[in-house]
TrEMBL record:
NCBIfam families cross-referenced by the UniProt entry: recf
The protein's name: DNA replication and repair protein RecF
UniProt keyword RNA-binding present: no
Function: The RecF protein is involved in DNA metabolism; it is required for DNA replication and normal SOS inducibility. RecF binds preferentially to single-stranded, linear DNA. It also seems to bind ATP.
Amino acid sequence: MRVTRLQVGGLRCFDQVGFAPGPGLNLILGGNGDGKSSLLEALHLMAYGRSFRGRVRDGLVRTGAPSLAVFVEWSEQVSGRSRRAGLRHNGQTWEGRLDGAPLAQLGDLCAALAVVTFEPGSHALVMGPAEPRRRFMDWGLFHVEPEFLRLWRRYGRALKQRNSLLKGRIRDAQLDAWEHELDAVGTLLTRYRQHYLEQLQPYLQATAAMLLPVAEGSTLQFLPGWRQEELSLADALLLSRERDLATGFTSVGPHRADWRIDHARIPGREALSRGQAKLTALSALLAQAEHQAARRGEWPVVALDDLASELDRRHQDQVLRRLQDYGAQVLITGTEAPAGSAHMLPPPAVFHVEHGILVAEGTASPPA
Ligand SMILES: Nc1ncnc2c1ncn2[C@@H]1O[C@H](COP(=O)(O)OP(=O)(O)OP(=O)(O)O)[C@@H](O)[C@H]1O
């Protein structure tokens, strides 16, 4: 998958900026606060329906601008298709289009455009709460299991219904019916997740061996969200019913699922240094990208925000060489070019951002 055009308007420091990345390595260079991360944030927004730096109301829309708009065009190597999508936020709601048709749900866009992002907050994937890890797992599944998004929505709907009955302290046949639906869909959804993590395992072993050899072996452990080894989901829901009626929400089930990475030579996540936590998160993200490439026959776009401040020179060099060898499209931001990039062949495409204006190296004026 290759992004051929990214157009951003009214987002953070950008009034209007257009960008046509090259097919391989792309360096987006500039000073602090010039807007490098915001460009990747715009692309991430299209692939995940959310920013990696908080909610829309946390300053995503440029001060004084009525709305933000992002437009992206990309090509799929396997199908040969050229695709396009646009997203606008008017301060209240999202409105989007995918391949010319109105977008019914943001999830449809997330399932279409595959971008794997590593950014300064990515260590939360290892050190933070379960939610980003669930998102990681589900986002990966949106791209490799076409049925998963539908199941995921069905589960979300059933959960909302059960929670609303619990809040109203209603114990009637409807509660039974929604629990039945949660059990049927949730059990299947869990099987997909479990299988996905099993498939990811060898990829993680390889990426972690490259980035964190001191770990001497890394394994993924799936936590389904209830005591699955002892109980079916239906039984777990029934058992937790009284407690759930008292609290007004569903305390067990796939919406509480999680996973963790165990390293053979590092006792637990608390023992990881900040750098090791980042390398663990990057190992998981690269494993996800490699697995997707193997399953779909093409790499997702890889976006690496401020790589030089996240990794030492040796690790930067390793990551870039691996991604270049695989032929992935990579977008990297930094205040300067990362270690080793000057000697890469073919050489990376270089773009400079300055005060919200972007210029491709070797051109005199901003790209249209
Ligand atoms: N809502 C907003 N309206 C206008 N400008 C904004 C808004 N939100 C952020 N900015 C500005 O946009 C710029 C965003 O910078 P961004 O984080 O993309 O920079 P960067 O080049 O990645 O910087 P660094 O190297 O410091 O990480 C900053 O100058 C910030 O002050």
